[in-house]
Structure formats: C-alpha cells, structure tokens
Write a structure and sequence with these properties.
about 350 residues, Aspartate Aminotransferase, domain 1, Aspartate Aminotransferase, domain 2
C-alpha cells in the first residue's frame, strides 16, 4: 500500500548527508534574515497579511485579491480539498507529491489517479473530460519533469479547477513553464512555496494565486491568522526585486550543479536517470534501489525512497542536487556499493 504521508525528512538522521529533502542548504541572506528577525519585536500584535499579500501580488503582476498566503503549500492543498468538497470528479496526475491526494481523501473526495508512463511527460488526453478538480505538479516532484506551459494551459476549461503545484517553479531558470503570471486562464489555481529555495521549511510560508472568487472561497475555510508574523515578513522580502534576481541566479547555479550530478551518474553502470530533470532533484532507477538506499545509509547518505509515490516502485530513489563536492562523494559511494554488491546482499 502506498504511504501517502511519507516525506523525505523521515529519511534523514544524525550523521547522514541529506540528499532526501529538496530544500536548499544555505544560510539566509541578510535581506531575508534581517526582516524576519526584526518581526520578532511585533509578536504581541496579531499578524497583518496585507503588506505581504500586496508584495506577492506585485511580484506576479496580479491584484491582491487574487493572492492567499498560506502556512506552506501543503496547507493550500488542504484548503482546496475542503473548499471544493462539491467537486464530482477529482483527478491527481501521478507520480507527484502525495499531499494533494492525501488532502482530497481526508476531505472525503473519491480520487482518480492518472499515472503517467515513463518518461512521465503529461499528455492532456490522459485527463478525463469529466474531471472538475485536477492536480498537476510542475516541475513535478519526484520526477523533476517540467511540463510545457501550453500543455498545462490546455487542461483549463470552464467548470474545472486546475491546480498547479509550482513549489519548485523558481528552481528553473526564467520559469518558462510557470502559469503564475496568467490571471485570465479559467479556473487556474497556482500553488507556490517559499520554503525550498530559501530554506524556510520550518517557517511554513507559501501562497495561492487564483481568481478572486476562488481566493475568497479558500479564505472562508482557512483558520484565523494562519500565517505568522515572521513568515509574513519572509514573504514580503522574498517578493522583492532583490529576491527575484537572487532566485534567478540560484536557479542558474543549480542547473550547473545538476548537470555535474548527471555527468557523474552517467559513468556509473546500472544507474539510469528515470526522467529528464529540470529542478533541484533527480529521480534514479536501478535494480534493488530499495536495498541500495539502505546501503547508502550505512555509507552516510540519506536519499528519498521512491516506492511511496504512486506510479513508481522499489527500483526508484530521488536524490537532491547539492554542491559539487557533495555530489562527487555521493556518486563515489554509490559506485562503490554497486561494485561491491553490498545492496544485493542486504535484506530489508
């Protein structure tokens, strides 16, 4: 049975190099850490989302009424599932992040899965015409596949809510496939996260971009003051021109680091990159990957198991892109395990 509630942080432990969690490992820049720290002086007042909402709206060329700030992208999935209980046909395109389906099931929806075959690229024809609530990731976790903007936009239609999980959109240089700046696409809901690139997973900050009536409906089921004052300060800072420029620079560096990882993996027999990656992680396929993952733990590396994602199985692992030295050491360890047959000797 698929474990929809399993996440990469469960793989990490003391002394392990973390290649399981797709959060960038870097200290906060001063333009981000300073306002977050300064916000602590205002904790006696209730959070005011107005300035952060306006900043996010300006960043994407939208009106504030089309923005909802959330306690991370995961809360957005819960709000959508709760607010649209009346949907008659919910569809989740897999393999992808499991929280959307988990949120739908918890809200009482019956969920149909559209499972994409390798190399996990989306064909709109696979999504039933009757679907009125559709979830797609882009770039998709865990495959790292980037679906073209035109393909995604073709799924939108009157009477359908099309939810795009763009938690990793800012990891792609120029964000060519993002629909965040298209407010006129009917029924389009874009979910974004600030926790990945800016290493803010513990602060819980994300947002939804959608038509104002959809935002109002989601807001009606959201708890009071759901986003803390420090998280609001982070959202304002991360929407600034300085932040956007830094984001673009980081995405370019990330692409170079990913290319290095792919080049090193190409020299390791028995390891296949399962799909063309575009984000901060790579999906690998190899025989006995479930046992290799355990051998990697013994060697000091945590990677994300693949068998908890619908459409994948025990021969898959997801690996985060890190700096060149970390990548080199990891690939050397993986190659040594495969050469020595350690994984084949192991038992779960």
């Amino acid at each position: 049975m698929i474990e929809l509630g399993h996440h990469g942080d469960a793989e990490v432990g003391p002394g392990l190099v973390d290649l399981a969690v797709n959060v960038r490992q870097a200290p906060l820049p001063p333009w981000l850490s300073a306002p977050v720290a300064a916000s602590l002086a205002s904790l006696g007042a209730y959070p005011d989302p107005g300035p952060a909402r306006a900043a996010v709206a300006a960043r994407h060329g939208r009106s504030p009424s089309s923005v909802l700030l959330t306690a991370g992208a995961a809360q957005a999935f819960v709000l959508i599932a709760q607010a649209y209980r009346g949907a008659s046909h919910a569809v989740v395109v897999h393999p992808q992040f499991t929280e959307p389906e988990a949120a739908l099931l918890a809200a009482g929806h019956t969920v149909d899965r559209v499972v994409l075959p390798p190399p996990y690229t989306l064909s709109p024809a696979l999504v039933p015409d009757s679907a009125d609530l559709v979830f797609v990731g882009n770039p998709t976790n865990p495959t790292s596949v980037l679906h073209p903007a035109a393909v995604l936009a073709s799924l939108a239609r009157p009477g359908r809510l099309l939810v795009l999980d763009e938690a990793f959109a800012d990891t792609v240089p120029g964000e060519p496939a993002s629909l965040a700046g298209l407010p006129d696409v009917p029924g389009l809901v874009v979910v974004r996260s600030l926790t990945k690139t800016w290493a803010l997973a513990g602060l819980r900050i994300g947002y939804v971009l959608a038509p104002p009536p959809v935002i109002a409906r989601l807001s009606a089921v959201q708890p009071l003051w759901p986003v803390s004052t420090p998280a609001l300060a982070a959202a304002t800072a991360c929407a600034s021109p300085v932040a956007v420029a830094a984001e673009r620079s980081i995405a370019i560096s990330l692409a170079a680091d990913r290319a290095h990882l792919l080049a090193r993996l190409a020299d390791v027999p028995g390891v296949a990159v399962a799909a063309p990656p575009a984000s901060s992680f790579v999906l690998l396929r190899m025989p006995n990957a479930d046992k290799i993952r355990l051998a990697l733990r013994d060697a000091g590396y945590a990677v994300r198991r693949g068998d908890t994602f619908p459409g994948l199985g025990p021969d898959f692992v997801r690996v985060a892109v890190r700096d060149l030295a970390t990548t080199d050491a990891f690939v050397d360890a993986l190659a040594a395990i495969l050469r020595g047959g350690e994984a084949a000797e192991r038992r779960p």
